Structures are given as C-alpha cells and as structure tokens.
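>> received
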Amino acid sequence: MTESPLTVSPLLWVGPVVITEPVLATWAIMAVVTIISLVVSRRLSLAPGRMQTALELLVDTIDQQIRDTMQAEPGPYRSLIGTLFVFVLIANWCALVPGVTPPTARLETDAALALVVLSAAVFHGIRSRGLAGYLASFAEPSWVMIPLNVVEQITRTFSL
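>> returned
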C-alpha cells in the first residue's frame, strides 16, 4: 500500500508538537537568512562595497517589480514581498543540497505562504481604503459581482 503524498513522517516531538522535515528545513532557512541579514546589515556605508551594491540591486529590483505590478510606492510592501522572494528562492535552492527536500515541495508550506499573502492583502486593502472602502471594492463594478470578487480574492492568492 502506498503512502499518501500529504503525510509527513515526524522527526521528533517537542511536547505535543510534531516536528517534521519541512518544519526543520524552514527553521534552518529562517536562521540562515536572519544571520546573513544581521551580518550584512552591520557594515552598511554611503560608499558601498560589492556585497552592499549587490543587495541594493536586489532591493531596487524588488521595488521596480512592485511599482510595475501594483502601480504603488514599494515602501509598505517591500519587506513582505522581499522576504517571501528570498525565502522561496533559498527554499527552492535547498533541492541542490543532497538529502534535503525543499519545504516548498510540501503543500503545507505553500498553503501557509498563501495564507500570509491573503492576510497581507486584506490588511493592506483595509489600510489603504478603510474598512468600508475595502468592503465596497467587492461590489465593483456592480453589486452582482460580490460573490465572484470574494472567490477571486481567495483563489488568486492560492494560485500565486
């Protein structure tokens, strides 16, 4: 009998919490990104070196993507989108390490990232338009579109 692709074997337990390989890989990625961020950001200067120039190029590229796709100033969105980009990039590169399965290969990680994006979309929508304006946007261009716009909000997030 074959095992379901949705099941993950536990590696260890911390009390009632089950720790699986995708969770462990995610924690390792978060630790690596945090350490690299702390080390790199300690030596920022007005006359950038190679590393700072490369990182500024990455930030500028993310900013331009935000401007092109959202037609908005990138400031409020840069940290979330940049963090998602770096996490997904490093998580996918984990496949190059022998014996490591990238956490993004598991449905749980992708669903969790989609929920973060959905929550951020609702938060930023309410923040920019107010609660009444955000809810009114579901009735555009007509009130008949409300169910379709609600479904679109959810499915668009998970499809991305």
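>> Strands lie at 10-14, 17-20.
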